[in-house]
Write a structure and sequence with these properties.
There is one protein chain. This protein is mostly helical. It has a two-stranded antiparallel sheet. The chain has a two-stranded antiparallel ribbon with strand order 3-4. Strands 5-6 form a two-stranded antiparallel ribbon. β7 and β8 form a beta hairpin. α5 runs antiparallel to α8, α7 packs antiparallel against α8 and α10 packs across α11. It is flat, with a radius of gyration of 48 Å.
């Protein structure tokens, strides 16, 4: 409908006038006042409604709505209503039948005392049924809790059994296919246990010449087993060397990344990382074995163009070897005869990649610092291998006053003579450090100990068993804080199973969960640990600082260990 319409209005008879009417758009919805529908066409016709809106109500200062007028208050009032009754009796002129009448005989009179006694008996009966219902409810709850506890214990037992089976399976796999230093320590430890068992059996059953012959046979078997372990170690070193090279190349070629304010990581490639990626791809290409002659020549040409950017003795030697292999390939020499030459090219190119002048990203991954002045700091002499090594290559023990032998010599001596397996204590030390990090109280002593120190603490101080249940499976034992309000130390720890440690952490005071005798026993072990580990470098200073600090934790009743 248009906004303006023209309407013809009859002003006088036979006289009309055009009136311009402006249409106002109504913003309100017109009410439906009924209408009708044409039966043939189906068109609906609605009754008209007024276009003018309702008259606005005048604003008044009188408060029309009040909480008091809208709130209904309930009132309870006792009242006595009147009730009219009547009786009809037989009299002259009126007969009332007595056929339906009943003879009421009064019962025994009940006194107030008897009434209250009866009420008490009824209340006692109700209490019996109520208490019976409560007892049945509690018994049902106890049955449900007991079943849940049995199910949980069953699940825990199944979980422990599966973990043990998985651990045995993993240990068997480690023995069959050793890859790391820990795997070979496990093999040497098993070899030493077997040797001691056989030696004990020979000493008990044989003597004289038979014993000497059995010892010679045992020595031959031990030699064969050591040789087999050595061959496995050689193969593992070859595989590990390739993994180390690939890890070095991937770290050098990795883009720079940092965490943004939104928590997402941003990755950025720099010219140095792009250069490292190109060198990594070329190295992988020249180490790939299954290439055709044309593909191999293409890879060698790419390598030649890459190293020609720098002119030095190393690049000249690489170019000379590339030309030699290309000439031999053109002459039709078999790949098996070129294997040594290709290894030389790969080795020299890897040396090229590790040179910071040609690959700047390699500078942050090399162990040898580029500044010669830093090599003169923290350098110690190993009397066993006659080498000067940095301080990180030496391992300090609790009773050492000098640096002693380096790690490599210690490991070699362990493989040759003692053959100790520290994998259990390594896992225990890792769990201990992770637990101490979760406290967030800047604990340091746990990070000063080494595997052999933890081994002495577990075996000599705590006898390799839980102080509570005497459980001796090292995989289930863990060292936790004796007093959780103080940081962990050899004189503030206790050896428990994982379930016992969870219950120990929930104790507010030690006297709440342990008796006087056990507390005294633990404190005596703490005194032994304090006397032994006070010789650890840096430990005595830490002890003096801790003793000088005030302690606000809960007091523990028992003997003094000072």
């Amino acid at each position: 409908m248009p906004d303006v319409i023209t309407v013809k209005v009859e002003t006088e008879p036979q006289r009309y006038k055009d009136v311009v009417v402006e249409v106002e758009r109504s913003t309100r919805k017109k009410p439906y006042l009924g209408g009708y529908r044409h039966k043939q066409t189906g068109v609906e016709f609605h009754h008209a409604s007024a276009q003018t809106g309702p008259k606005a109500r005048a604003i008044s200062n009188v408060e029309r709505y009040c909480r008091d007028t809208q709130t209904y208050q309930m009132k309870h009032i006792r009242q006595q209503t009147s009730e009219d009754t009547y009786t009809q009796m037989t009299k002259i002129g009126v007969y009332v039948s007595n056929m339906a009448d009943k003879l009421m005989i009064p019962r025994k009179y009940t006194t107030a005392e008897e009434y209250h006694k009866m009420i008490l008996e009824k209340v006692i009966v109700l209490q019996k049924y109520w208490r019976r219902w409560l007892a049945m409810k509690n018994v049902t709850k106890l049955k449900v809790d007991r079943q849940k506890r049995l199910d949980w214990e069953k699940q825990e037992e199944i979980k422990k059994r599966e973990e043990k089976e998985m651990r045995i399976k993993k240990e068997f796999e480690r023995r069959m296919n050793p890859k790391t230093k820990e795997d070979f320590d496990l093999l040497y430890s098993a070899l030493e246990k077997w040797r001691l068992e056989e030696l004990e059996k020979i000493d008990k059953t044989l003597s004289g010449a038979e014993r000497k012959a059995a010892l010679c046979q045992l020595l031959d078997q031990e030699t064969q087993l050591i040789g087999s372990i050595g061959r496995h170690k050689k193969d593992a070193d070859t595989d590990n060397r390739e993994k180390i090279i690939q890890s070095f190349l991937n770290k050098a070629a990795a883009p720079k990344k940092w965490r943004g304010p939104d928590g997402n990581f941003t990755h950025m490639d720099t010219p140095y990382t792009i250069r490292a990626q190109e060198l990594r791809d070329i190295y992988n290409s020249i180490c790939f074995k299954y290439l055709t002659q044309d593909e191999r020549l293409d890879v060698l040409l790419t390598l030649k163009h890459t190293v020609k950017e720098h002119d030095c003795k190393l690049t000249q030697e690489i170019i000379e070897l590339i030309d030699r292999e290309a000439d031999l390939l053109m002459r039709g020499v078999r790949d098996s005869n070129l294997e040594g030459l290709r290894k030389r090219i790969a080795t020299l190119f890897l040396q090229y990649i590790k040179t910071p002048t040609f690959n700047p990203e390699a500078a942050r991954l090399l162990k040898v610092p580029q500044d010669p002045s830093t090599l003169r700091q923290n350098i110690y002499y190993c009397a066993s291998c006659n080498q000067y090594l940095p301080s990180v290559e030496f391992q300090l023990s609790t009773n050492s006053r000098t640096v002693g032998r380096c790690r490599k010599c210690r490991n070699l001596d362990n493989d040759a003579r003692t053959r100790q397996d520290y994998s259990h204590y390594r896992l225990m030390l890792r769990d201990l450090r992770r637990l101490e990090e979760s406290y967030g109280d800047d604990s340091k002593v746990a990070f000063l100990l080494q595997e052999n120190d933890l081994r002495y603490l577990v075996e000599k101080i705590w006898n390799s068993q839980s102080i509570v249940s005497a459980w001796d499976d090292l995989y289930d034992l863990i060292l936790v804080r004796w007093d959780k309000h103080r940081e962990w130390s050899p004189w503030n720890c206790v050896l428990l199973t994982k379930e016992e440690s969870s219950a120990h952490e929930r104790l507010e005071t030690l006297a709440e969960g342990y008796g006087r005798e056990l507390i005294h026993k633990v404190q005596r072990k703490h005194a032994l640990a304090r006397n032994y580990f006070s010789r650890l470098p840096g430990m005595s200073e830490h002890m003096r600082r801790r003793v000088a600090e005030p302690h606000d934790g809960p007091a523990v009743e028992g003997i003094s260990v000072n």
